[in-house]
């Protein structure tokens, strides 16, 4: 087909797909692309962990200042690319008596902020297409702004009253522990299997630790970039305008539905990063409005706490369960404070949209924002206050 006869905005590569692929085949293609996208996210996280995992392990030592502890939670989660890993580690340290609960509380709050770096990085893959990038960055950073707002409100209250720790301690005394408390997500397992296959191939060419980490990061970024491109294009074709309107109408009518979806999906995949990262291309494609994706990210915050709770159940120590429940209570209370009230509900969304509008024409601002919020500020907090 001559590219000169294509409709505006349609590439010669995508045009044949639009002509020949039936909806069922396109649905399968989107599922495969989503799977590869998650594999790319996993490879990126594995590579980052390979470069900074040892550093993350040493961050928890000798911290007493609550702001330094908050900074540790952010930076450790950025380094391991998983709030679940950070909070499970914190639970283990608290249960073993190596970390005071008072210090662990701001750490888990920091983990909530740090986990949103993944979807922010994913949004950068849309940087070549201005309109998509604006939507993608909005979808990613509204999670950042909500978590930062939650910490700004709840950390001072917790330091003044200890209400989260006291409530969690009361609840943990009511819950029995269990040595066999485990949960293996089949989706997480499938993504891990695919990631392992890529790693084995890469290890044929690169064997050393640091070089391998860099190779995994590059491979993950390439996979994320390519899959996002075709997920977005296929979603636009696959989802009819009528379905878009129905989906957005349901979520706009009841934010509780979106929160429930976020909880269920995150519990299923055992990762809030996966849930929120999947939202980025869906919003970028125009299928889901930014505001209607917002409650799903809040549900993801709640759903991700299940990992720490299961870790605490497996350890069977009251102190470990207390800090795990602090994580749950923090996210639930943050939603109860910020979401029910119309005047403040969408402040994180408006801030995200404002940042995205600026960064859409000045891409370096998005990169600078990511580096400053998730790396520079936490490092300064740790160096100065620890």
Summarize the structure.
The chain has 386 residues and is mainly α.
Account of the 3D structure:
- With 386 residues, the protein is mostly helical.
- It has one domain (20-385).
- Helix content is 80%, strand content 0%.
- The protein has helices at 14-20, 23-58, 66-80, 83-95, 101-114, 117-123, 130-161, 163-172, 186-205, 209-238, 241-253, 255-269, 272-284, 290-303, 306-315, 318-338, 342-345, 347-359, 363-385.
- Helix 3 (66-80) crosses helix 4, helix 3 (66-80) crosses helix 19 and helix 7 crosses helix 18.
- The longest helix has 36 residues, at 23-58.
- It starts with 13 loop residues before the first helix and ends with a helix.
Short descriptors:
386 residues, mainly alpha
SSE diagram, text form:
Blueprint: H1 14-20, H2 23-58, H3 66-80, H4 83-95, H5 101-114, H6 117-123, H7 130-161, H8 163-172, H9 186-205, H10 209-238, H11 241-253, H12 255-269, H13 272-284, H14 290-303, H15 306-315, H16 318-338, H17 342-345, H18 347-359, H19 363-385
Helix pairs in contact: 2-3, 2-9, 2-10, 3-4, 3-5, 3-19, 4-5, 4-15, 4-16, 5-7, 5-16, 6-7, 6-13, 7-13, 7-14, 7-16, 7-18, 8-16, 11-12, 12-13, 12-14, 13-14, 15-16, 18-19
């Amino acid at each position: 087909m001559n590219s000169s006869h294509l409709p505006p905005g349609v590439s010669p590569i995508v045009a044949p797909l639009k002509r020949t692929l039936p909806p069922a085949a396109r649905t399968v293609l989107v599922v495969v692309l989503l799977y590869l996208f998650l594999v790319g996210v996993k490879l990126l996280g594995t590579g980052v962990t390979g470069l900074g995992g040892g550093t993350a392990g040493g961050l928890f030592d000798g911290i007493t200042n609550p702001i330094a502890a908050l900074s540790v939670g952010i930076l450790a989660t950025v380094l391991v690319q998983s709030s679940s890993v950070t909070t499970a580690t914190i639970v283990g340290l608290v249960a073993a008596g190596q970390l005071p609960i008072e210090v662990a509380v701001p750490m888990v709050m920091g983990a909530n902020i740090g986990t949103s770096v993944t979807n922010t990085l994913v949004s950068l893959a849309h940087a070549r297409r201005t309109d998509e990038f604006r939507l993608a960055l909005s979808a990613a950073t509204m999670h950042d702004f909500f978590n930062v707002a939650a910490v700004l409100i709840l950390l001072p209250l917790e330091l003044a009253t200890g209400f989260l720790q006291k409530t969690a301690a009361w609840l943990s005394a009511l819950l029995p522990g269990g040595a066999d408390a485990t949960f293996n997500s089949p989706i997480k397992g499938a993504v891990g299997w695919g990631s392992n296959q890529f790693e084995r191939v890469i290890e044929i060419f690169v064997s050393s630790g640091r070089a391998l980490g860099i190779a995994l990061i590059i491979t993950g970024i390439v996979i994320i970039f390519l899959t996002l491109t075709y997920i977005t294009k296929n979603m636009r074709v696959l989802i009819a305008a009528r379905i878009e309107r129905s989906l957005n109408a349901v979520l706009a009518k009841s934010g509780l539905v979106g929160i429930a979806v976020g909880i269920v999906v995150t519990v299923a995949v055992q990762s809030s990063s996966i849930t929120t990262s999947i939202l980025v291309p869906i919003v970028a494609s125009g299928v889901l409005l930014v505001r209607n994706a917002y409650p799903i990210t809040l549900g993801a915050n709640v759903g991700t706490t299940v990992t720490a709770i299961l870790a605490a159940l497996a350890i069977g120590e009251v102190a470990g369960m207390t800090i795990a429940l602090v994580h749950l209570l923090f996210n639930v209370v943050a939603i109860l404070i910020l979401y029910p009230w119309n005047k403040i509900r969408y402040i994180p969304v408006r801030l995200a949209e404002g940042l995205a509008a600026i960064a859409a024409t000045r891409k370096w601002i998005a990169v600078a924002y990511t580096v400053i919020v998730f790396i520079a500020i936490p490092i300064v907090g740790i160096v100065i206050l620890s």
